[in-house]
């Protein structure tokens, strides 16, 4: 596990996610750090979701996100110290008919 992104890191997409991305025309995934401090304690976690080209440009040009090319499109990583495993896997989950992206291999 490394604290910084390294060029040997691999990105894998599970087949269900690949199919969904092709069907919906999705190409780019972003990993963001989100925080909620509206209660008595603060919660910080990683949020993984799809972004369009306009948001991709904004995050890379204005927010200094790292843009990494994969076989499905781009993966955008935040400019913060995170723990990365050698392989990061993205998958598609569903809850009550709502589909969302999850990841394994990146930790706060």
Protein described:
The chain has 108 residues and is α/β, with parallel strands linked by helices. Helices cover 18% and strands 49% of the residues. It is globular, with a radius of gyration of 14 Å. It starts with 9 loop residues before the first strand and ends with a strand.
Question: Briefly, what is this?
Answer:
By secondary structure, the chain is α/β, with parallel strands linked by helices. The protein has helices at 15-24, 53-61, and strands spanning 10-13, 28-36, 43-51, 66-69, 74-77, 83-95, 98-107.
Question: How would you summarize the topology of this molecule?
Answer:
Elements: E1 10-13, H1 15-24, E2 28-36, E3 43-51, H2 53-61, E4 66-69, E5 74-77, E6 83-95, E7 98-107
Parallel strand pairs: 1-6, 2-5
Antiparallel strand pairs: 2-3, 4-5, 6-7
Provide the descriptors you would attach to this structure in a database record.
about 110 residues; four-stranded mixed β-sheet; three-stranded mixed β-sheet; 7 strands; about 20% helix
